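Researcher: Good morning. I'm working through a list of sequences from a screen, and I'd like to move beyond sequence-only analysis. For each chain I'm collecting a predicted structure so we can compare shapes side by side. This is the next one on the list. No need for commentary yet; just the structure.
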Amino acid sequence: MSFLIDSSIMITSQILFFGFGWLFFMRQLFKDYEVRQYVVQVIFSVTFAFSCTMFELIIFEILGVLNSSSRYFHWKLNLCVILLILVFLVPFYIGYFIVSNIRLLHKQRLLFSCLLWLTFMYFFWKLGDPFPILSPKHGILSIEQLISRVGVIGVTLMALLSGFGAVNCPYTYMSYFLRNVTDVDILALERRLLQTMDMIISKKKRMAMTRRTMFQKGEVHNKPSGFWGMIKSITTSAPGSENLNLIQQEVDALEELSRQLFLETADLHATKVKFWSQHISFILVGIIIVTSIRGLLITLTKFFYAISSSKSSNVIVLLLAQIMGMYFVSSVLLIRMSMPLEYRTIITEVLGELQFNFYHRWFDVIFLVSALSSILFLYLAHKQAPEKHMTP
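Model: Good morning. Structure tokens for this chain:
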């Protein structure tokens, strides 16, 4: 029964995402074009729906909305569908519409579309050879084989866009600011605090015992009088007495240390409250998701308007759908490292034995190259601008 309820929630959300993708296609991308291919519109909307569903499942992992078995099933189903779309369906239709625009190949367009798709598959498969993206034990048609290659393309695209615009820099380094606090750390600090308190009590007890001993020996009643008596009381001490001023200084230092340890213990406990950790993770991941989707849609719209025409519009929309799907799949690979360990278990199981660290290192390298290239480009453009302005 619970599985049916969870499935109904996922289906409802996918329908809403599909409707949003459909409206975006009609009202934004193709608002100036009368000729529309419904298969292109459906593919774009389905790709958008399943891409957004992956981000929805990430949020569900943090909030624990569905049962773990249901989340695992929908993760698996969602990845299989999005990979089928990105690797088989979209590339085939891109080749189909390219061939359809060539009159000489119009009669044999199905054959040439298959040939273009096979060419794409050849280069797509060869793309994974130079990269250490997975272990050699995976099968040819496994999810790991497909998603690893999609991840390389998507991460490269993300790094190029991030390096040029410098909009995803806080997300890239967010994991460095996460503080991992364990129960062992808290117990060790509390043990140090208790030891310090015991030392303070012991030293104060020694001071009290010393004063009591001095009082019992009659030092209070038999104090020497006169100038020489004052000098003697300063320079000498009673037999068995201790330097009370030195002990008092040690007590003051230990009390200050105990205050610092108490504040650190309270800070560790505040960091370990699971409620706030859960909701902070939810807010940060939500911000990343919203800004990623918004930024990508804006970029795709500008790109579409810049190069599209009545004949090439369908091909360009399918290319945008391909880029969008790969972008969002790669976002899941990178967001996984920013999530706490307890929230990434199912994602790791579904994605398989991928070399996750490689994708982060590859992203950093491409991001750095893109950022440096952008700096150089802007510097040269700024340097040439005054020269053009001064030219008569």
